[in-house]
Amino acid sequence: MTIAIIGGTGPQGQGLALRFARAGVPVALGSRDGARGAEIAREISQRLPEGSAKITGTDNVSAVEIAEEMVVLAVPFSAHNVTLHGIKSQLNGKILVDIVVPLKDGDPKLVEMPPEGSATEAAQALLGPDIPVVGALHNVSATTLNTLEWVINCDILVCGDQLAARKKVMELCAKLGVTCYNAGPSQSARCIEAITPILIRTNISKAVPFSHAGIKIWAPDH
Question: Structure pTM?
């Protein structure tokens, strides 16, 4: 099943493309500039081990058309709505996986939520009820994704208003070797997206001896 990654030329998009392709999922990498998308796809494909699925690069609209069911949105929040307007007509019959976090302009240690409450909810309001929007992969470090020798060190919280769509996205994310949790309706994205700036603050702090940390759900010992 080919997926599309819109905004795929950025660090998060490139990392996800590499991880999914290595897991056997073909990827159509979308960019505002189709030539740039094709160039990045060729460059990062050289990093894949033999036997990986193919990464192709193209413009955003073409990438969505290539995708069989899943379209991942990985653009900066400043481009979130305008990008969705540009691909909305191609999204019919598909699931949008929104990984965007509305970080505060000029200070990524804070969020600045849109009026809808979260980027996930803003996408659902813009696209309407017939196109399922699922929030996922908000809290994964781009550096971790791009460092293929590292295991992804976090769990994935998945939310959205349609249970069937949530389950499909959880199955897709599980291909990355991560544990996924059903976090409920899209309103949960208000909490999930807000975790990211906390992680950013922690990861750049000189008070902790690590960086690129993630979130895990720990079961009790008893």
Answer: 0.96
